[in-house]
């Protein structure tokens, strides 16, 4: 997906797209991001930093989800967002703005910073919905008999997020709770 985005920036000119992709892999993400040994060290480090960043910027969400729940949520989202460069999760203009910021390298000491900042911004954007989803799951989990026949369908219908990303977030956050309800 990242290579396709680089090619898109050059209007299909393969050589220019190749050099942008090379710049992205070597200078922006760095060799440790997709390293073989230790496996993807840069990615895993960024994922751990994201869990701390989300927890510090959104303490209510962190408290509601708990340390393990927040780490699971961040891990699931990071796998889908960071590894794709948000391709498939941000629409046209925001995606291009993110990539322009990422490739501009405004932070020479830490060129991957836009990945972390945009990720945190997306979670902040959906914080209210995530808290509501978590509250609904907690209600269902603590109610001996749910007030509806199809708890999974009803809960999922309540999550009318604007993008597939937030649907994915809700499913991952509530995965354990939904499994308990379905049993």
UniProtKB/TrEMBL annotation:
It comes from Durusdinium trenchii. PROSITE patterns: TBC_RABGAP. It comes from the Eukaryota. Residues 1-106 form the Rab-GAP TBC domain. This is Growth hormone-regulated TBC protein 1.
């Amino acid at each position: 997906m990242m290579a396709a985005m680089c090619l898109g920036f050059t209007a299909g000119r393969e050589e220019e797209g190749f050099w942008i992709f090379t710049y992205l892999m070597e200078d922006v993400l760095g060799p440790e991001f997709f390293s073989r040994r230790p496996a993807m060290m840069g990615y895993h480090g960024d994922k751990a930093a994201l869990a701390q960043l989300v927890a510090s910027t959104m303490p209510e969400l962190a408290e509601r989800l708990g340390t393990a729940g927040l780490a699971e949520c961040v891990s699931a989202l990071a796998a889908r967002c960071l590894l794709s460069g948000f391709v498939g999760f941000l629409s046209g203009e925001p995606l291009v703005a993110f990539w322009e910021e990422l490739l501009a390298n405004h932070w020479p000491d830490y060129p991957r910073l836009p990945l972390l900042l945009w990720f945190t911004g997306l979670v902040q954007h959906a914080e209210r919905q995530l808290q509501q989803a978590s509250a609904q799951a907690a209600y269902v989990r603590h109610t001996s008999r749910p007030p509806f026949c199809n708890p999974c369908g009803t809960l999922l219908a309540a999550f009318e997020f604007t993008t597939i990303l937030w649907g994915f977030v809700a499913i991952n956050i509530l995965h354990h709770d939904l499994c308990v309800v379905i049993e």
